[in-house]
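I am writing to request your help with a piece of structural work I have in hand. I set the record out below, with my sincere thanks for your time.
___
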Amino acid sequence: MRFLIIGAGPSGLTFANRLLDLGIEDFHVLEAGEEAGGLCRSKNVDGTPLDISGGHFIDVRRPAVNEFLFRFMGEDELSSFERITKINTGRERIGYPYEANIWQLPIDDEVEHLKSIAAAGCNTGAKEPDNFLDWISWKLGDKIAEEYMIPYNEKIFSVDLKSLGTYWMNKLPNVSFEDTLRSCLMKKPYGSLPGHARFYYPKKHGAGELWLRMAERIKDHIEYGVKVTELDLESRTVNPGGYKADVIINTAPWTAFKVIKGASDDFLEAVSKLCYSSIVVKYLPETEDPEVNWEYYPSRDKDFHRILYRNTFAKGSKGAWAEINTKRYVAHDGDVAFTTEYAYPLNTIDKPEKIRLILDEAAGHKVYGLGRWGEWEHYNSDVVVELAMKCLERLLEHTRFGD
C-alpha cells in the first residue's frame, strides 16, 4: 500500500481522513484495540460518559483544527465552557495557576509567597537549572514549590524530578513576579492563560464519540485487534509476513514494538531510554462540584492527583473521575477503574536528543513518527490533529518534487 498508519488515535485518524479528503485511498490503518480513539476513548458508566484515559477536551485556539473536527461533530453538538479549575492543597483551595491566584490566600500566606517568589533564582539572576526539580524553586520560589509543584508532579509522574529536563516548560502557564504582584494588588489573575482556557465538550457523548465518527468514515481502511509487534525500517514492513508500505506513519509508542529491524544500535539504545508514566482513572459516584471543572491535588495523603467533576461539562451526568498514577493506585473491591499504560511521555533530560535521533533515522527510511507517542511529546488532541494535517502536507509536497 502507499500509506500504512499504525494506530487509530487522533493523529492517525486525522492523517487517514485527510488522505481520503485528497482522493487518496491507497492506505490502511492498524489498531491494536477493538475501537478507535486512542487516549480519547470513552465508556458509559452509570448511564453517562466517562473518558477512560483522563479528561480530553477540544481547545478552541486552532480555527483550522476546529473547522476540520466540526465536520464530524458539529459545533451545535458541543457545549462551550470557560475553564474553571482549582488547586486543593489540603489547607486551601485556590484558582489555577497557583502563582496567579495567591491573592486568594490569607494575607500572611500571601506575603510569604510574594517574598519567596521575589527571592526565586529567576528574579535574582541565578543560573537556570537543567533539571525540573531545581527549576521549580528557581522559577516559582520555595513556597509554591513545597506547597504545590513538587508534590503534585511527584504524584503525577512518580519519578525523581531531577531526572526530568526543563525544555518542556512552555506547557506551563508563564506568570512573572510582576504579574503575581499585580494580581495580589488587583485581586485578579494575571499572566498567560493555561491550556483549555476555553474548551468544547460533547453535549450528549463522551470525548470518544468524535473519534469514533472519524473512524466510521474510513471504516473500510481500518483493521482492529492488530497489535504491531515487529517493525522493519529498511523494508517498511510490520509483523512477520504482514504489511508493507511505501510510507509508514507511526503513532504508537516506539517502546511498544518488541522487535525493530533495520535500525542502528544507537537507534535501539535511544528507544530503550524513552520513559513514560501510566495512570488509572477511577469513577467516584458520590463526588460532585457544581462549579469546578477539575481540581488538582498536590497533597501526598491522597492517591489521586486530579479529579474531574463531569457534571460541570457533561450535562446530566453525576459523579466524578479521579486520575491516579499506577504506582500509587491500590485497588479496592467494587472499584470502577480503567488503566492506561501509556498515559504521559516523560520529559527526561536526555529525551530531546534521543527522540530526534529516532525520528531522523526512521524518516530516512520513510517511517515517520507522529502524535503524542510517535513524537514522544505531551501533546493535547487538538495539537496532534494540527500536526497530522501538516505532516501530510509536507509528505505530499516532497513527493511532488521527487524527494
